[in-house]
Amino acid sequence: MVFHGDYEVDFEIYEKREGDWRSRLLGHMSGINPEEAKARWMEAHEISDERNERIHAIPSVEEWR
After folding, report:
1. pLDDT confidence of residue 1
2. Which of 9, 10, 11, 15 has its CA 20 to 30 A from that of 65?
């Protein structure tokens, strides 16, 4: 039997500043891919739809070590 957690990766969740190239770290979330991690994080934190385009998930640096 394979568990879903066997394939999940830790992602860092960032929000890009409006009108700027910089972003800020919002937190971490696990997922199979960046889209799933972002969706889980947004659901858990009840983020409004208007912020959706500014939020991104990228693989955590710890995953690459």
Report:
1. 46
2. 15
Compute the half-sphere exposure of residue 56: CA atoms within 13 Å on the CB side of its CA. 11
* Letter string b/e over residues 31-46, b meaning 16 or more CB atoms within 10 A of that residue's CB: beebebbbebbbeeee
Query: Length of the chain in residues, anyone?
Result: 65
Domain region containing 59 = 4-64
Count of structural domains, the chain: 1
Model confidence over 5-58: pLDDT tens digits?
Answer: 567 889 999 999 888 889 999 999 999 999 999 999 999 998 888 888 999 999
d(CA 18, CA 40): 22
